Amino acid sequence: MSPVENKISPCVKNPDPAIPRHIAVIMDGNGRWAKSRGQSRIMGHRKGAESVRRIIRLSGDRGVEYLTLFAFSSENWQRPPREVKLLMELFISVLEKDIDILVENGVRLRIVGDLKRFGNRICKLIKKAELRTASNSCMQLTIAANYGGRWDITQACQQLAAKSSSGEINPDEINEELLSRHLVTDGMPDPDLFIRTGGEKRISNFLIWQLAYTELYFTDVLWPDFSKQNFADALQWFAKRERRFGKTSEQILSQALDNRHSEVSK
Ligand code: IPE
Ligand code: IPE
Ligand code: MG
After folding, report:
1. Whose atoms come closest to the Cα of 34: which ligand?
2. How far, in Å, is the centroid of ligand 1 from the Cα of 31?
3. Structure pTM?
4. How much is the average pLDDT of 141-160?
5. Fewest C-beta in 10 Å: which of 78, 84, 169, 205?
6. What residues are in contact with ligand 2 under a 6 Å CB criterion?
7. Which atom of ligand 2 is nearest to the CA of 223?
8. Distance set, CA 97 to CA 47, 103, 129, 193, 215 (Å)
9. Taking CB atoms and a 6 Å cutoff, what residues make up the pocket around ligand 1?
10. Nearest Cα to 148, choosing from 73, 91, 67?
């Protein structure tokens, strides 16, 4: 992709309310994409990296504030060692080569997951990349690497248990909000839209707590093929959802009317 194609339009603010603030994506189907072409699975992962660059640019252009991508699950270590090694190499190369694009476009990068399992080299690169983009505020890109939703909730419980036994907090103070603040997504709104490519209809231990009220969009398109049009289709589908959060449709409609009236009378 040329540098011009990588350019996000200048920091879109105040997006349309029909645009999700936070999109979370399971980028699935790289292996099948490669296999259908008689290529090795790693070729699918390489091609998938191009779709990663594309969705970052498209999200920035549409004013999405948070984009969270599932790059490697805690279960993916069970894959053949050669594939795991090649995925790590690809991760290193993205961390080394693609950071300039994020810096230029005002994207803040965060890597979340159980990072202890990664080697020293990767940990250093992660720190460096996060530091270089720390003051950016156009969009936050979060990459979930060696991430598992159950691990996330467990590590939050460990932190709360430690704080409780040291007397820093009282066990009675532990509620949903406090637990959320100890998850790796602390400071981010829960995802509004979840996209999974590759045809499977499951969450695969992604953000299991945070997705409680997210709109779930599944498509058969394999991740390396996920195009600008496919992204637009997902946003269009999202714009048509009525998010009720337990209320009735009538309540949501009258709330929307009230909001419109108060905006007009401002
Ligand atoms: C997703 O694609 C990428 C990772 C899990 C790293 P897959 O590699 O799972 O592709 P399929 O599902 O085998 O086609
Ligand atoms: C989920 O994809 C993990 C990532 C995309 C990183 P998988 O391909 O590993 O999911 P399962 O194993 O088919 O559920
Ligand atoms: Mg898969």
Report:
1. 1
2. 5
3. 0.94
4. 98
5. 78
6. 26-28, 70-73, 76, 200, 202, 204
7. 5
8. 16, 11, 10, 29, 33
9. 27-32, 72, 76, 87, 198
10. 73
| CA distances for 239 relative to 7, 43, 142, 146, 215, angstroms | 25, 34, 23, 32, 10
Q: What is the DSSP string of 191-241?
A: PSEEEE-SS----TTSSTTTTTTPEEEE--S-GGG--HHHHHHHHHHHHT-
Per the listing, tokens 């603010």 go with: 13
DSSP 198: S
Stated length of the chain: 266
CA distances from 77 to 59, 122, 184 (A): 29, 16, 20
Q: What is the DSSP letter of 69?
A: E
> Which neighbouring-strand residues pair with 181?
none
| pLDDT, tens digit, 9 for 90 and up, residues 93-141 | 999 999 999 999 999 999 999 999 999 999 999 999 999 999 999 999 9
Kindly report the number of other CB atoms within 10 A of residue 205's CB atom. Answer: 16
Q: What is the DSSP letter of 169?
A: S
Q: Which strand (E) or helix (H) includes residue 31? A: helix 30-35
pLDDT digits (tens, 9 = 90+) for 221-259: 999 999 999 999 999 999 999 999 999 999 999 999 998
Q: In what order do the strands lie in the sheet with 193-196?
A: 107-112, 139-147, 66-73, 22-26, 193-196, 215-218
Q: Are 179 and 156 in contact (CB under 8 A)?
A: yes
CATH 1.10.10.60 fits 3-265, yes or no: no
**Structure token digits, residue 245:** 């959060």
Kindly give the number of the ligand 2 atom that is closest to the alpha carbon of 31.
8
CA atoms of 49 and 177, how far apart (whole Å): 35
What is the spatial distance between Cα 111 and Cα 130, in angstroms, rounded to a whole number?
Answer: 8
